């Protein structure tokens, strides 16, 4: 058992350092093509590269392990110190990806029907997950790979709306201006904004505002972007009504909308992952996340879905991304135990 653990940790280190050396911000997932071709050959796993540049290994299983290959921008040179691996994506999401990849390989060697897909574009608009959904492929169970502090099991994510708002006004010389679209828009923003407070309350957060070209001329237009998050069982119209009322003379476009997701703690996938942790002497915790993930999309394939992965979620998207080989090993064993439960 000790030899097996050490072998898996060393294999995880090799693969993780390799994929961390490949820069794959959203839209650049094709950069990882050679990595997955090599993995496909080494592990003798059929590979399908999709139109969205997602990487589908061993399609055909009833259980799907689904991490994502893209990262946020900002390359961090990968390195290792005392079994701690550093680099962009070490936590989100290449650490979980390698744990899932090795678990898939071992499970298939043991005769289990499992598939793996490294999804594209999760950090943007989930093009990979949407593509998979539109393909109409059926899976009985899906485990989404995201860092959940190695012991947490995620059953709920909030929903998301991205709004673009464009307002128009009369442009005037600043020395004699009778109105100002910047001041007007600022008042409106103050009226409708809701900073994140608790999970159960929606948030409306302005993230981009642009207006003006000249130092001595009031702007003729202004652009505002709102990031809206809301929990399960929330009526979206109650969130949108005050926004439409405040900006009734402006153009408003919902450029992206992702419904929230909530699955039962008694769903087979949730119970399997929890048992997978308990078998290792780890007490799991059910948690809900304030953001969104590919689980919001893939829940339309099956309700037996859950999110779990190794890594400290507080390090996501930071310059300090790191993950230990022990965390990855726990992730591998959790996935293998869960697959065993589901087969």
TrEMBL record:
Cofactor note: Binds 2 Zn(2+) or Co(2+) ions per subunit.
Catalytic activity entry: [amino-group carrier protein]-C-terminal-gamma-(L-lysyl)-L-glutamate + H2O = [amino-group carrier protein]-C-terminal-L-glutamate + L-lysine; [amino-group carrier protein]-C-terminal-gamma-(L-ornithyl)-L-glutamate + H2O = [amino-group carrier protein]-C-terminal-L-glutamate + L-ornithine
Keywords on record: Amino-acid biosynthesis, Arginine biosynthesis, Cobalt, Cytoplasm, Hydrolase, Lysine biosynthesis, Metal-binding, Zinc
InterPro entries hit by this protein: ArgE/DapE_CS (IPR001261), Bact_exopeptidase_dim_dom (IPR036264), LysK (IPR010175), Peptidase_M20 (IPR002933), Peptidase_M20_dimer (IPR011650), Peptidase_M20A (IPR050072)
Pathway noted in the entry: Amino-acid biosynthesis; L-arginine biosynthesis; Amino-acid biosynthesis; L-lysine biosynthesis via AAA pathway; L-lysine from L-alpha-aminoadipate (Thermus route): step 5/5
Residues binding Zn(2+) 1, per UniProt: 68, 92, 146
Cofactor(s) named in the record: Zn(2+); Co(2+)
The Peptidase M20 dimerisation domain, residue ranges: 157-245
Binding sites annotated in the UniProt record for Zn(2+) 2: 92, 123, 317
BP GO terms, sorted: L-arginine biosynthetic process via ornithine; lysine biosynthetic process via aminoadipic acid
GO terms for MF: cobalt ion binding; hydrolase activity, acting on carbon-nitrogen (but not peptide) bonds, in linear amides; zinc ion binding
Described purpose of this protein according to its UniProt entry: Catalyzes the release of L-lysine from [LysW]-gamma-L-lysine and the release of L-ornithine from [LysW]-L-ornithine.
Family classification: Belongs to the peptidase M20A family. LysK subfamily.
Database matches in PANTHER family: [LYSW]-LYSINE_[LYSW]-ORNITHINE HYDROLASE, ACETYLORNITHINE DEACETYLASE
Protein's UniProt name: [LysW]-lysine/[LysW]-ornithine hydrolase
Species per Swiss-Prot/TrEMBL record: Acidianus brierleyi
Lineage: Archaea, Thermoproteota, Thermoprotei, Sulfolobales, Sulfolobaceae
Primary gene name: lysK
